[in-house]
Write a structure and sequence with these properties.
Elements: H1 6-24, H2 31-45, H3 55-74, H4 80-96, H5 102-122, H6 126-151, H7 160-184, E1 212-213, E2 226-233, E3 244-250, E4 252-253, E5 257-259, E6 268-269, E7 271-273, E8 282-288, E9 299-300, E10 303-313, E11 316-319, E12 322-324, E13 330-332, E14 338-345, H8 359-364, H9 374-384, H10 390-404, E15 406-407, H11 418-426, E16 428-429, H12 431-444, E17 449-456, E18 459-461, E19 464-468, E20 472-480, E21 484-488, H13 502-523, H14 527-538, H15 556-579, H16 581-600, H17 612-621, H18 627-642, H19 651-678
Parallel strand pairs: 15-16
Antiparallel strand pairs: 1-5, 2-8, 2-19, 3-9, 3-17, 4-5, 6-12, 7-10, 8-14, 10-11, 10-14, 12-13, 17-20, 18-19, 20-21
Helix pairs in contact: 1-2, 1-4, 1-5, 1-6, 2-4, 3-4, 4-5, 5-6, 6-7, 9-12, 10-12, 16-18, 16-19, 17-18
Length: about 675
């Protein structure tokens, strides 16, 4: 048996690593599993197999590990699918570090295939697709080289370069066939088994708390991570939304932080109506991603009805109820990695009631801190110049703040009075400073207002709008008689949306677009999509409404499809004709047939199921006199058959002539041997 080729083992180990990565990208595997498998993979890639001398002992060590995983699952500390994936990774690691053999290779790749299935169950996201493709290519190359390695006679070098090209073409054809099978074969939606939510890589980057503390740097504004996706009906069809996404409001400021006095409603409901609806409401289908990191619902201003909520958990999607808190905040009752829900919001500019406010909450809209610096009141009075209309006064103050103060994310730590620091010392701050200044300056003049927080903007990618962590924003709600709360934003318009690097945003947008296509075309692809594909291909769309419908001619789309198919077939036929692979195959086949016939003249015939490679290997093991001649013949056959290195003109005849001389010499030796014994 030949010594295992180094390249083949590296390809096998890398394929196993890609399979494990398909599970690891979900972020659900225990950290200790990542460490153990990572170390095992690195050791294997160096060519060392420390478990080769004790395969049974190391295999027995997996038994207590399986027991521990079972206890974790039984105790509710680990999900069953996650435990199974972790154990598959450990099994693959043990096999990677064991002695190499055909049986071990098969076990390693089988464990890798199980890990691919585990990765599909854990997330099935775009990074999984990359790992899946890497596994398919690397494992196919490794298995192809294993077949060639077994066919090469002992002691002969493996023709890697000669077989790499045909192996690559075979892998391409296999992948293309798999894609065609996936598209055409009747199937269920992948979402029947896949878990749509995974923690992902990194911690959550945004969220809502019960308070908003004023001061500090606004580092969140530079974070490009996507925290929510939304589909809007009617769709504004714009590349950038100039919309406010409301999360919650705050009515109480103590000089340092904002809070809400409203008590939470203990009642839990599947649907919540915050205010009466109106005509032409904006429907939103929103998905909060794991990067969001909060249970607060987000909606376009001004939300009226919210419901049909799903919590994405590691074990699948499940219905969840909503709880109403103070400040118009709604929270999901159940913890989840992500959420999906539906919202109806009133169109911008719609007059509406202020919401469910009791007298205490209304009075709080005028409250200011006891230790408020009197300069704040004087400054507001000076800027307004006697303006009493709530909306006009708010707009006047907002315009003044935008013109007189600078926007910056570079601020120091906490200060004794952050509002005074912003208005009279630094004269620079981020959105929370602008919104706080506007809200309190209005209150000092007897105008009811509150602080609102959420997001601003939204970038269109495909059919969805993406909102980033850097889009987090704060603004002011002004209570206008007979109109309700009206949004007024004192932050300069250029700094309301994300302040992250444009290059990072573009890269993430491209990634999200590809992932959306992956979800739509692969993960969410179902039998209904197959039927729609067939219908769209055959549907006829008449350009003239008066066109005769009874025409029996095929539709124009069918003619176009037939032309494309015909052009494709012609192109493939032309390509194959130029390369003439059939001629090479026949030439190699005729050559091996002639070799086998010549060997048969001296009694050397293939046994059951043996090929020429097997015969050559057997002759070498038996130290047969014909082995030195048959081995190079076999190698040239393999190169001509699989390596696209065809036999040169006259080469086959020359090699067969050498074989004939060798067989004649062998016959003469066989004939002389009985005479010598007789004498």
């Amino acid at each position: 048996m030949n010594r295992p080729h180094r390249l083949r083992l590296i390809l096998r180990d890398l394929a196993t690593g890609a399979a494990f990565a398909s599970m690891a990208v979900s972020g659900q595997l225990p950290v200790w599993t990542l460490g153990l498998v990572g170390v095992a993979l690195l050791v294997a890639l160096t060519g060392r197999r420390p478990f080769a001398r004790m395969p049974r002992v190391t295999a027995l060590l997996l038994v207590p590990v399986a027991g521990v995983l079972y206890l974790l699952v039984a105790g509710g500390q680990m999900d069953l699918v996650v435990a199974a994936c972790a154990f598959a990774g450990l099994v693959a690691s043990q096999r990677l570090l064991s002695e190499t053999s055909p049986a071990t290779d098969g076990q390693v790749l089988l464990a890798a295939l199980l890990m691919i299935a585990g990765g599909a169950a854990l997330s099935g996201e775009l990074l999984f697709a990359v790992c899946l493709m890497a596994f398919a290519v690397l494992s196919s190359l490794a298995m192809g080289l294993a077949v060639v390695e077994a066919a090469v006679p002992v002691g002969e070098p493996l023709p890697v370069r000669e077989v790499t090209r045909p192996l690559s073409r075979g892998i391409f054809v296999a992948v293309a066939g798999a894609v065609a099978f996936f598209v055409l074969f009747p199937r269920l939606n992948w979402n029947v088994g896949v878990r749509r939510a995974a923690p992902g890589l990194g911690v959550a980057t945004s969220g809502f708390s019960d308070t908003v503390r004023l001061g500090g740097s606004g580092t969140l504004k530079s974070n490009p991570r996507v925290v929510l996706k939304a589909q809007l009906t009617p769709d504004p069809a714009t590349e950038q939304l100039g919309s406010y996404w409301l999360g919650r409001t705050y009515d109480t400021f103590d000089g340092q932080e904002w809070s809400t006095i409203g008590a939470p409603n203990k009642r839990r409901r599947t649907r919540v109506t915050l205010r009466p609806g109106a005509e032409k409401q904006v429907y939103q289908r929103i998905e909060l991603l794991p990067a969001y990191g909060s249970r607060t619902l987000i909606a376009l201003e001004t939300p009226s009805k919210l419901g049909n909520a799903l919590a994405h958990t590691p074990t699948g999607n499940r219905r969840t109820t909503l709880q109403e808190l103070g400040g118009d905040e709604l929270r999901f009752v159940e913890e989840g990695l992500g959420y999906a829900y539906e919202v109806y919001s009133l169109p911008p500019g719609t007059d509406t009631a202020p919401g469910k406010l009791d007298q205490t909450e209304q009075d709080q809209l005028l409250a200011v801190p006891d230790n408020l610096d009197p300069r704040v009141t004087a400054l507001a009075r000076q800027v307004l110049g006697g303006e009493k209309d709530p909306l006009a006064a708010a707009n006047k103050l907002a315009s003044w703040l935008q013109s007189e103060y600078q926007y910056t994310l570079e601020l120091g730590g906490d200060v004794a009075d952050p509002l005074v620091e912003f208005l009279f010392v630094r004269k620079a701050g981020h959105c929370e400073h602008f919104a706080t200044a506007l809200t309190l300056m209005l209150r000092t003049q007897g105008i009811q207002a509150r602080l609102a927080t959420g997001f601003f903007g939204g970038e269109r990618v495909g059919e969805e709008y993406l909102v980033r962590a850097g889009d987090a924003h704060a603004w002011t709600h002004v209570l206008v008689p007979e109109r309700g709360f009206v949004t007024v934003d004192a932050t300069p318009a250029a700094f309301r949306a994300s302040q992250s690097l444009e290059l990072l945003e573009n890269l993430i947008s491209v990634y999200e677009a590809i992932e959306s296509a992956w979800r739509r075309s692969v993960v969410d692809y179902s039998f209904r999509d197959q039927m729609n594909l067939v219908r769209d291909m055959s549907r006829r769309q008449p350009s003239d409404p008066g066109e005769e419908r009874s025409s029996r001619l095929p539709p124009a789309r069918a003619w176009g499809m037939a032309a494309l198919v015909g052009a494709g077939v012609y192109g493939v036929w032309t390509y194959l004709s130029r390369r003439k692979p059939r001629t090479k195959t026949l030439e190699a086949t005729r050559f091996v047939d002639a070799v086998e016939r010549q060997l048969a003249t001296v009694g050397v015939r293939p046994r059951d199921g043996e090929t020429l490679e097997d015969v050559s290997a057997r002759l070498t093991r038996e130290a047969h006199p014909l082995a030195p001649t048959v081995s190079p013949l076999t190698r040239r056959y393999l190169e001509a058959r699989f390596g696209q290195r065809s036999l040169e003109v006259g080469e086959a005849a020359r090699l067969l002539k050498e074989l004939k001389r060798a067989t004649e010499t062998f016959q003469q030796q066989q004939q002389r041997t009985p005479k010598a014994r007789a004498s």
